[in-house]
Write a structure and sequence with these properties.
Layout lengths: L3 H4 L4 H13 L2 H8 L3 H15 L4 E4 L2 E4 L1 H24 L10 E6 L1 H18 L4 E6 L13 H8 L5 E4 L8 E9 L1 E6 L10 H6 L1 E5 L8 H8 L5 E6 L2 H9 L4 E5 H11 L1 E4 L8 E8 L6 H25 L1
Parallel strand pairs: 3-4, 3-5, 8-9, 8-10
Antiparallel strand pairs: 1-2, 5-12, 6-12, 7-10, 7-11
Helix pairs in contact: 2-3, 2-4, 2-5, 3-4, 6-11, 6-12
Length: about 325
């Protein structure tokens, strides 16, 4: 990326700055994240533009957008920084109590909403200077096929995120996976909805449905199950995440198939209830996934173990409350 002459005046901090501006899409927010002034970030971008002979970022009313050159540089810069972080992490033992690292976790919000508060509480106590970023990831196409999550695996390898939490059973051998919990889907609806009183399959098919879909594609795994029985349903609305789904069904007659743990944790404050599905829906293993080579990073290994611990602790707490 840099020629021999440029290396003599290159500053590694410029790549850190580039990555921050690219991720935040805003000079001010990047400056806050890096504990710099906005003018310092702008000055650094100026140096980087001259070094790479490209504007890199174009200003808009809402922030900045990357040029084609900056987009092309995103992956190699992320790889360079990941390799350097690994070198630095192996030079000194990782100590969560003093570390100032930032980790990125990717997951559907129906999954991250299950573990996030417990993870933040643990990090606040055990690693107060570690920051967490959460990315919403959903299949870019309808359904829940194994291939639908390939873009998330590609992002892991590109170091765009550190850990992905996905309903994947089969993963390439170059990745490490650990099951966090088993998940099944229930049918959620507003309190007082007539479907809750008589949740038959015929009535299920006759209802107006909401589906969580990143792209707006209304065909999901429920439709695949219905099709095997020669049945179908009307998907009246798609929304891009599970929290919006809860808010919408709370004030409409729409019903939705949503993750059981997610509904159990968050339905009460929306006035939403749930019932068992009147058809045999598949269950899913929710697994934390990361590249195997990345586990040489003691910090990432700590986060990987911590996720498992906080999820298991949450499950134990729920079982005690039910007794």
């Amino acid at each position: 990326m840099l020629n021999h002459i440029d290396l003599s005046r290159a500053d590694l901090n410029l790549l850190v700055l580039f990555a921050a501006v690219l991720e935040e899409g805003h000079v001010g927010r990047a400056a806050e994240r890096l504990n710099l002034s906005a003018s310092a970030v702008s000055h650094g971008l100026g140096r980087l533009r001259r070094l790479l002979n490209d504007p890199l970022f174009l200003r808009t009313p809402k922030g900045v957008v990357p040029t084609a050159r900056a987009t092309d540089l995103a992956e190699p810069v992320a790889d360079i920084l990941a390799r350097i972080r690994h070198i630095v992490s192996t030079a000194a033992p990782f100590d969560p109590a003093t570390s100032t690292r930032r980790f990125i976790i990717g997951a559907p919000d129906g999954t991250s909403a299950v573990f996030l508060l417990r993870l933040l509480d643990h990090v606040r106590r055990a690693a107060p200077d570690i920051d967490i970023g959460v990315r919403q990831i959903l299949p870019p196409q309808g359904g829940q096929t194994e291939r639908a999550w390939e873009p998330a695996l590609a992002d892991l390898e590109a170091r765009a995120m550190d850990i992905a939490i996905l309903p994947l059973d089969e993963i390439p051998v170059r990745f490490l996976a650990r099951t966090l919990y088993e998940e099944e889907f229930v049918i959620a609806m507003r309190a007082g909805h007539p479907f809750a009183r008589r949740a038959t399959l015929d009535r299920f098919c006759a209802m107006r449905h909401l589906v969580v879909s990143l792209t707006g594609d209304g065909h999901g795994f429920v439709d695949a199950v219905l099709a095997k029985q020669g049945l179908s349903r009307r998907v009246a609305l798609t929304v891009p995440n599970f929290m919006i789904a809860l808010a919408v069904i709370a004030d409409t007659d729409l019903i939705a198939a949503l993750p059981r743990r997610f509904v159990a944790m968050h339905a009460k404050r929306f006035g939403v209830v749930s019932t068992k599905a009147p058809l045999p829906l598949p269950s899913f293993r929710i697994r934390a996934i990361t590249p195997g080579v990345a586990m040489m990073d003691a910090g990432l290994a700590w986060l990987f173990d911590t996720l498992k611990e906080v999820v298991e602790a949450g499950g134990t707490a729920r079982r005690k409350r039910r007794r």
